[in-house]
Amino acid sequence: MTDQALQQHLSTRRSPPIASLGGEVPDGDIRSMLELASRVPDHGMLVPFRFILYRGDSRTVVGQRLADRLQERDGPLSDAARQKEEERFSRAPLVVGVVFVPKDNGPKPIPEWEQFLCSGAVAMNLLHAASALGYRANWITNWYSDDAEARTLLGLKPEERVAGFVHIGRTDINLPDRERPRVEDLMTDYSPDGKG
């Protein structure tokens, strides 16, 4: 990718609707995406992240388990609500769970919040890696990221947290850009008197 192509990608990147993602994602492409996604700033080289792949029939199984969990937690689901939960992980051909794995790291520990930022950078890098290989991707979290029992159903350990679920596939859909914040409204120059 040339500098101009990279700038074009970054300036036009959009997340397509998950339901629009189709096709297949071969193992070689998955490996390449995850290798690229892993190239992030990582203070102390702790690697405070890992990946869980949801593909094939496992996507349907996890959807059924999430629907059961939501019904157990919130009460009976309508048929439409149950179907929505059951299809959470089967709308795209591949879902990659980017998992934050906190690391105990000695007498001068790197703060857990900084480690979590690293795992978030992995999720963002995965969006770019998918695009670089000709795919499209959408990064979400959803209710099951904050539910301890749902996280267990999704394959996380008790101490782990969700950085995101990245849904990956192919689509020809073109989305108009949404309104973006003006950079001028977001930046200030530092002021030593604390007014910056």
From TrEMBL:
Compositionally biased intervals (Polar residues): 1-14
Organism, as annotated: Notoacmeibacter ruber
Cofactor note: Binds 1 FMN per subunit.
Gene Ontology molecular function: any one: oxidoreductase activity
Cofactor: FMN
Any Pfam family: Nitroreductase
Alphabetized InterPro entries for the sequence: NAD(P)H_nitroreductase, Nitroreductase, Nitroreductase-like, YdjA-like
Alphabetized UniProt keyword annotations: Flavoprotein, FMN, NAD, NADP, Oxidoreductase
Region entry Disordered, spans: 1-24
Similarity section: Belongs to the nitroreductase family.
Residues that, per the record, bind FMN: 13-15, 39, 43, 139-141
This protein's record includes keyword Metal-binding: no
Protein name, entry field: Putative NAD(P)H nitroreductase
Enzyme Commission number: 1.-.-.-
All residue ranges annotated as the Nitroreductase domain in the record: 25-170
Annotated coiled-coil segments of the chain: none
Keyword presence, Nucleotidyltransferase: no
